[in-house]
Amino acid sequence: MKIGKWILMFLLVVAPVFSFGSTTYAKDPTKETTAYVDVSVLTVWVEPNIARDVDLPSLTNPVDPWKWTKNMTYEEKLWLVGKLETQALYGMKVHILEEQGDWVKIAVVGQPTPREEAGYPGWVPKEQLIQSKKFQQLERRPFATVTAPTAFLYSNQGLTKEFMEVSFNTRLPVLAAFRDRVLVMTPSDGTKWFARTDVEIYQSEDEIPAPTADDLLETAELFLDLPYLWAGVSGFGFDCSGFTHTIYRAHGITIPRDSSVQARYGTYVEREHLQKGDLVFFARNGGTGAVHHVGMYIGDGKMIHSPNSASTVEIVTIDESSYAGSYHSARRYLEE
Prior knowledge:
Elements: H1 2-13, E1 17-20, E2 23-26, E3 34-37, E4 41-45, H2 65-71, H3 74-79, E5 84-89, E6 93-100, E7 103-108, E8 120-125, E9 129-130, H4 133-136, E10 143-146, E11 150-154, E12 162-167, E13 171-177, E14 181-185, E15 191-195, E16 199-202, H5 213-220, E17 233-234, E18 237-238, H6 240-250, H7 259-262, E19 267-268, E20 279-283, H8 284-287, E21 291-299, E22 302-305, E23 314-317, E24 327-332
Antiparallel strand pairs: 1-2, 3-6, 3-9, 4-5, 6-7, 7-8, 10-13, 10-16, 11-12, 13-14, 14-15, 17-18, 19-24, 20-21, 20-24, 21-22, 22-23
């Protein structure tokens, strides 16, 4: 009888647990499971196990985002359309929703979508995430945010031993700051160093200065000629809404992740009243159908945007571009 009781306790207590990398997580769906991105750029897939051989540099730990994007042909990049959901950056928080073999379904915190209250959902390899109470305890510390298109973390304070190249808008907790370097904590590899010129330090998200339209445009122009990447949200490649979402997010303003949702929030703006920094949207069926593209208005009838898999971030005159006949609407996310 006692043996049966212990077997029952084992089934109730031990069985609902699964291994996740070097960490164990409870499967109890009523308990939130938090993890952190442990690669420079985490690529989030629509389904597990659909990636191709060419995608291997995006699936490992560490990843090699430049090798991945530069080795793909146009056709191989085009294949990604509809296969990827979004991306997340080094150190970002995610919630674990589901497990399937070596993959987990996550929700990316800070990327709003009506699809999932916890964040933008999709599937990623388990080995690209880490659970760390030590890192979690540093969430309220000042943080360094990368302001260069990409920047290196270094293993030594002399900034001579490169550890990892990370993206614009990567945020890591600050442990110490000096005139020319900043000591930060990583999710699983201890302390590393940034060059002071590659980051800004903020005490909290609330202390990020409210941007002007010119601030947004200056940031956007850092990425001119960067090749498009479907689902991209990083200095290694953006899609259209990943570009606008990330530019605003870097300046302390969180807007929805997708263009169709970005077009439903903010303040509606008539076309004749467009101002710099406004988001302009384009739709199918001559502008009357579903929104499928977004750019940022820069004045004089022009926008900066990340158009498609065949292109790079560019500035175009709207009425002289391929989007001339599909203008849909505009929204303003800057405070007046």
